[in-house]
Structure formats: structure tokens, C-alpha cells
Amino acid sequence: MPTIPPHEDEPRTCRLCSVRSNGICRVLDTSQLARLARHTRSTRHEAGAEVFGDETDITTYANVVSGVIKLMKVLEDGRQQVVGLKFANDFIGRIHAASNALSAEATSEVELCLVPRALMEAMLEENRPLERWLMKETLRELDEAREWMVTLGRKSAAERVASFLYLIALHVNPELGSDTATVEYDLPLTRSDMADFLGLSIETVSRQLTELRRLEIIVIHNKRHVHIPDTERLRQRAG
Amino acid sequence: MPTIPPHEDEPRTCRLCSVRSNGICRVLDTSQLARLARHTRSTRHEAGAEVFGDETDITTYANVVSGVIKLMKVLEDGRQQVVGLKFANDFIGRIHAASNALSAEATSEVELCLVPRALMEAMLEENRPLERWLMKETLRELDEAREWMVTLGRKSAAERVASFLYLIALHVNPELGSDTATVEYDLPLTRSDMADFLGLSIETVSRQLTELRRLEIIVIHNKRHVHIPDTERLRQRAG
DNA sequence: GGCGGCATTTGACCTATGTCATCAAATGCG
DNA sequence: CGCATTTGATGACATAGGTCAAATGCCGCC
After folding, report:
1. What CATH number is associated with residue A230?
2. Does residue A63 share a domain with residue A165?
3. For chain B, does the N or the C end have fewer beta carbons within 10 angstroms?
């Protein structure tokens, strides 16, 4: 990851922000960045807080600075499904949206950088690289969604839970090849959120975690902290 | 749907093609269309034929002229999941793809209009509306994928089958509101394909169809022809 | 340090859906 | 025209995962 060197004209707030080097701001030049920075607003949400509602008109887009956001769809009778997770540097919001019919909630303490809708759309007009960056992001989201469709449609509970743990492991260490490696992290989701992501019940998630622990594929401390001694074993269990 | 009037300079092959008025060609002006038409190639595939392979490098993109294509993902052990369906006027292919890890097969007799990759990418460079059209298409695909994640993750077999039948009904008649309406069509998928789309076994699909027939929500002739006397009842069953 | 409230785990039980086997109907082929 | 092949329907049975209830562990708070 080549880090863009700090620059005199760069807005102070952006200097240490990873979105600058790894997120949307990466494709902006200094003057564009300055313009953007003049209109962005930073917000913080605690775990569980709703960030965008199901019905709310979209008046701002957002970039995740830190923390994790879950995108959810809810059926009338209350059943819900997490349809996407957003991590640091990810962009949130549907361009040209009529309605997204989708809500966004923080699953952990989250820091966002909000971009007014009008500005974002104006910049997209003018900035071809920005538009292209967004296209790539969207395609990545589509790939992820389809990958997850396989998990939801065809994998067993054991495979789903392993797939999820592996997914997070990949986020912590994107270089996980098929080599043995060790990863350790705090789960960004509660059991309930995991269940909603995996299309399972809380109890099944819990039982599968217990089973993974019994097999010593993972070690869990304090409910949330996961240690994976051998990511390859986990990956095999993920189907 | 405003149909673009035929034009003297318009390539002859495109005159009667619905992609011209409803698909990608809609955002092209006459000269661009002419250029494109000089390099496209029409192909035909029978039901079951593989159109793009899992591993094949993408050398062409395609537009569906008629028929239906299923996009599939396959796990090592052979389990498979349909992750998308492409109907007439839909565009197939992942721009900027490293690999899509996804195969495309005809589920019915299919007619495609192939566009060489290099040309498509060149046109995207020059043609802003084209790029934007593709972005919208991609977002639509993403919405569809997420909608389907809810179906796969949270709906019962009965709801899934109803959802599928309703999905096709919507394709036949996009104006289906919440009013009572009648729709009739031929299923574009075999029971096996439906099962792979719905994350169910063939038998379960078959049984659910039988149940829908028993409830007189649908009438089936010759295995494939479906008549839906009241789409609203079907929608309610779809969850 | 004890208490109340959550999140999680565990257990017992039940049901929806998968699996396997058979049958029936439709389709293609000589 | 009849046989073989494919596709779909149905029945019997097995089981993964859901549901409901209870136990446990953890945390902040008084």
C-alpha cells in the first residue's frame, strides 16, 4: 500500500486519515481534497446505533474512518438479513439511488466522514478517476454479495461460521494465502449480528463456535477475542 | 419505454433489436452505434450450453438479445449456486475484471450480441453516458443480489419458490403493483436450475410447486407453463 | 461485594428440508 | 410405433438446524 506523502496544502484533518491513502480520497488531487474537506463532517456512533434508516432520503454519503457498519434488510415480519459489512475506508451510499431500502447500523464504535450528497455528485461529474474508483468499489461489493449468496444458499452452518471467521481474518490480514498463518482479532459483531449475516439462529452460531473451539481451530477469550492458530484449517472448514 | 425511431444511418442488424431501445445501445448516438455494430458478432446457444467458463479470460462482453442466462458459482465439491439471471437487454461481463470466478450458461435458447472487450473498454473511455449506464446496471445487479441474499438467508422453501415465480412475473409484466393481476409465462429454468437459484433441493422445489398448485395460486401446464390468476396472492406467499 | 440485566451457552425437543428410491410423463430416436 | 432417456413428482426416512427454556458468565452499578 503506497502511502501518499503528506503535503503542505493538505487539509489538516485529512493528514492522518487512512481514507486519504486507502479510501476514496486516494483518487483526489490536493485541490479537490481541499474542496471536499471544507464540506465533510465527522460523526461518531456507538455500537448498535442506526446510521441510515430504511426509508430516510439519502442526503449524505459516508466513508468509514474506523469501526464496522452492517447493512441490513428487514422483512415486514421482522426477520432480518445483513447484506453487507463496511470496514474502515469503505464508502457507504447508493449513487443515483431512488431508494436503497436498506438500513445501516454501527456494530461497533464507528467514526464516519460524511459527504453531502450534492457535493459528491458534483465531484463525480467532474472527476473521472473518482467515478471509476466508485465503479470498482461497486463491482467489489457485487462480487462479495455473490460470494455470500453461495454461502447462504449452499453451505452448512459449520461452513458458514467458518467462512465468516475467515472473512474477518482476511480483513485483518489481506495477504492470507494458502499458507499456514496465525491471526487474532476482536469480533466486530455480536452473536446476533453474526446470525443475521449467516442466515442462522443465534444458538446455531454459538454451537458452531463451541465446536470450532473444541476442534482447536479457534481459541476465544472473553466472548469476543478470537485467535486462529492456523488459518488454513479454518479455510478448509469453510467449504 | 420510448422507442428510438429508426434512423437512416442505423446499422440494419440493429433496427429491430430490442437492445437498441432498451439495452446498452440506448445510450449510443448513431455514429457510435455504427462503430459498435461493425465489431459485434451474433451468437446463438441452446439450453444448457456454457457461454462463458469459470476460468476463461474475458475477451468479449455480451448483450442478451433473447433468452435467459444463469450466472453460477460452483464449490470444489460440486455444490452450485445461481447468483444471477440475465434476461433480454441485459449486459454480461465484469468490467476491469481480474477474474470473475463465475460461469454463464444458457437456461433456454439464447441469442447474444458479442462485443469485443477492447472496443467496449475504448468506448467506455470516450463515452460518459455509456459509463454511467453501466454504473446504473451494476447498481441494479447489486440491489438484486442483496434482495436475493434475504431470500436465501431468511425465507422458507415455500416463500423462496413463491419469490422466484413472482420475480419472473415481474419480468414479464414490470408494472405489477399491489393490484390483482394475471400473468402467464413459460418458466425459463428447469427444476434443477430453480433449486440452484433458490438454495434448495430439486425435490423441495417440486413439492412447493405442487403445494402452490393445490392452493390454486398457480396453474401449471406441461411442466413449464405457469399461469398466475392473482399475482397479489403469490406476492403475499413470497414473504 | 452483592445485585440486576444482558449476552452467550447449553440442553431437549421438534420440524422443515435434504436424501434416496421409485414412479410417471414427456421427449427424442431408430 | 415402441424403446430409451430425460425431467419431474411423490413417498419414506434421516437429520441439520430452529425453537423454547434454563443455566451460566460477565459487566456496570449501587
Report:
1. 1.10.10.10
2. no
3. N
Quote the pLDDT of residue A122. 93
Query: How many structural domains compose chain B?
Result: 2
Rounded mean pLDDT for each run of 10 residues along chain B, 239 residues in total: 55 84 91 91 90 79 95 94 96 81 91 93 93 95 96 97 96 84 93 96 96 94 91 94
Q: Looking at residue A33, which CATH number applies to its domain?
A: 2.60.120.10
Asked whether residue A163, judged by its CB, lies under 7 Å from any atom of the DNA or RNA strand D, the reply is: no
Gap between the Cα atoms of B48 and B70, Å rounded: 10
Q: Model pTM?
A: 0.92
| Chain A contact set for B147 (CB, 8 A) | 73
Task: Please report, in angstroms and rounded to a whole number, the separation of the first and last CA atoms in chain B.
Answer: 30
How near does any CA of chain A get to the CA of B134, in Å? 9
Name chain B contacts of A142, Cβ cutoff 8 Å: 138, 141-142, 145
